[in-house]
Amino acid sequence: MKSCGKQLLQSGMPISGARTMLKANQPDGFDCPGCAWGDPEHGSSFEFCENGVKAVAWEATEKRATPAFFAKRTVSELRQLSDYELELNGRLTHPMRYDATSDRYLPVAWEVAFAEIGSILKGLANPDRAEFYTSGRASNEAAFLYQLFVRVYGTNNFPDCSNMCHEASGIAMRQAVGVGKGTVLLEDFEEAEAIFVIGQNPGTNHPRMLGDLRRAALRGARIVVFNPIRERGLERFSDPQDKIEMLRRGSTDIASHYLQPQLGGDMAAIRGMAKAVLAAEEVAAAAGLPSVLDHSFLAEHCAGFAEYKASVEATSWAEIEDQSGLSREEIERAADVYIKAERVICTWAMGVTQHLHSVSTIREIANFMFLRGNIGRPGAGLCPVRGHSNVQGDRTVGIDEKPSKDFLDALETHFRFTVPRQHGHNVLAAIGAMLDGSAAAFIGLGGNFARATPDSALVEKALRRLKLTVHIATKPNHSHLMPGETAFILPCLGRTEMDLNATGNSQLVSVEDSMSMVHGSAGINRPASPLLLSEVAIIAGIAQATVGSAVVDWAELAEDYDRIRDHIEATIPGFEDYNKRLRKPRGFHLRNAAAHRKWQTPTGKASFSCQALPEQTVHQRARKGEGRFALQTFRSHDQYNTTVYGLDDRYRGVYGERQVIFIHPEDLKAINAKAGDRVDVVGEHDDGIERVARDFRFVPYDIPRGSIAGYYPELNVLVPLGSAGEESDTPTSKSIMVSFRRRNAA
Ligand SMILES: Nc1nc2c(c(=O)[nH]1)N[C@H]1C(S)=C(S)[C@@H](COP(=O)(O)OP(=O)(O)OC[C@H]3O[C@@H](n4cnc5c(=O)[nH]c(N)nc54)[C@H](O)[C@@H]3O)O[C@H]1N2
Ligand SMILES: Nc1nc2c(c(=O)[nH]1)N[C@H]1C(S)=C(S)[C@@H](COP(=O)(O)OP(=O)(O)OC[C@H]3O[C@@H](n4cnc5c(=O)[nH]c(N)nc54)[C@H](O)[C@@H]3O)O[C@H]1N2
Ligand SMILES: [Mo]
User: Fold this and answer.
1) Which residues surround ligand 3, an ion (CB under 5 A)?
2) CATH for 618-742?
3) Full-prediction pTM beyond 0.85?
């Protein structure tokens, strides 16, 4: 509790916020908007973390971005502020409409906003000319209502933050095991003998996961990390809830093995481990020792093992070492941990998914885990660690530009309307349509589209050319300052706030975490302004004004979210008794077939893939040109995506600034530069477009030579729209080819 108090003070949270924090991730409280990590069995021993505190404090701030704030400055003037400065102004309080004459946002009545939005949407030549974006904070109820409205309107255009996030995980997992979600539960972390953490920085982005890793390390589980950067949280960790550890300023070693591959080198590294496992199997067989492979799993459950084995044998160690940047010995040592452990979990996040070859890399992770049957039994499995707190739930309830036939059929039968069958736009397709003029309207359910997307300068311009832009948001951000011809900012309740219906009853929403647990969330704070509406109510208002109530009585659903949940239950498998089970302390688990070794794949089996390694990764290409580097863009300890809380990145020793480039000291020497030198970072994507991020400072760091790193979203101007993951279409924001231009040429 003491550390909690200290953190609250550090976060500058008003005292009322302390009560807010105590209710995070409680059975009768709200779901922490921080991340999608699971909640423990015993809701009473509440779990919080430093960054969860920040996320809650950010929303529960007492600052307000009122109409007076918007009256003081023109939108062009506001555009000069950074996201950090913008969001410092606090919570939005009024619905606002853009006035082009004065270049200002002015207050508007809700009914007027809904009517105008409805009339513009109705007037579009074709519903496919509108793009409906979602950021992963929306509750299941809001997201379900949103997709229902958009489909009644007539399109599947659902660009979603997950297109830039875990898209590759969903695709690869569906191919490999038939379910696009992780197969483990939180409890499995208590039983795993080894945990492989690939391309993820939980110390900053999933701090509660670090607690589980720490407990695993303390009971002797081995933790193998693959990360180009030495992330402090993954090396050692002091638990703020462990009084003795805090008093002694002690810490627990987390990683037993820390491997630093080159950017994009993970598929090669994992293939190397698979090679070592197959070699160990041969040795064991020759010596008459027990098998290393799980032959009965392979025979009973898997398809394609022989082809996979052949492709591993065809991959040389030279190729593996060159592409991964790791030595054969290091890889074999990691493989040895895998071989000796009876139960293994593999987790991963953006360091794996935001590359050109993410889908094949995740297939390779699955291949590797199949070798010893590490899926569908206690203490073992695949665990893509999701980002936004309800990004997984949003997908489950229908935010999907390529919906399945079964889901569309269910909607059609249940609601009796003709659903649009044609696939819609993902994020990159939506941007393409905005740029070529075929899109006319953008509606954003949360998020900061212009800043989170690649080539952000281009996207900003594209937004401003639209007929209509609508942002449903809690705080002002840059996307709001790119108004279309008609533009609205619609302020909504956050998750920490009470959502009362007309009869004064508090409404419950629900979310799904990375472990497919669905649980309830009810805010406890007074709304930031009496004018705020819930996301559900806003969607219902727009829907009513656009498509009327012939198919769905929107107002009736907004009045009682139990009714929305009844519709979810009727159209989506797994939600039986939704309203009842949701009210149990920990909610309920959505059945995951793969976790029960039921494979909903075309072969009916867990499917091996057998592709060759990528011909070249970004670092292999960068190495060929003089002065070229492979850049990854990641998060600091003091930000939530495009929301910057502060300018420090404590674990990496950076204070008071964000325009930095982490680089190996020898690389600095090689380009004749030193720590602190300032440069412009120049994009080297071969499409002839000039991309420059100006005025960055070098920070020498423990990172492989040739690979560099810096913060998102400042570097998004360098992420090319034309570079996207194979199959996933995810912007490759962790493999950008760049060079430097000197600023202080002395
Ligand atoms: N506090 C806080 N919490 C968050 C967020 C936040 O911004 N702030 N964002 C949320 C969201 S939406 C998401 S998606 C998650 C993101 O969670 P993470 O995936 O942890 O996010 P990143 O900061 O992008 O970190 C990527 C990590 O992968 C490593 N990496 C980069 N490239 C490679 C590679 O090629 N190979 C390997 N092995 N490693 C690589 C980087 O060095 C870095 O440690 O966190 C969620 N939680
Ligand atoms: N270069 C680069 N680009 C990236 C990434 C990267 O690693 N590198 N990561 C990608 C990833 S993983 C993701 S998920 C995306 C994130 O992309 P987004 O989800 O679009 O961005 P956020 O920064 O999370 O959105 C922040 C805004 O959401 C609004 N908001 C906050 N809470 C609520 C709420 O409860 N309701 C509503 N309606 N609005 C709310 C606030 O107005 C806030 O300004 O960015 C992607 N872009
Ligand atoms: Mo994300």
Assistant:
1) 165, 387
2) 2.40.40.20
3) yes
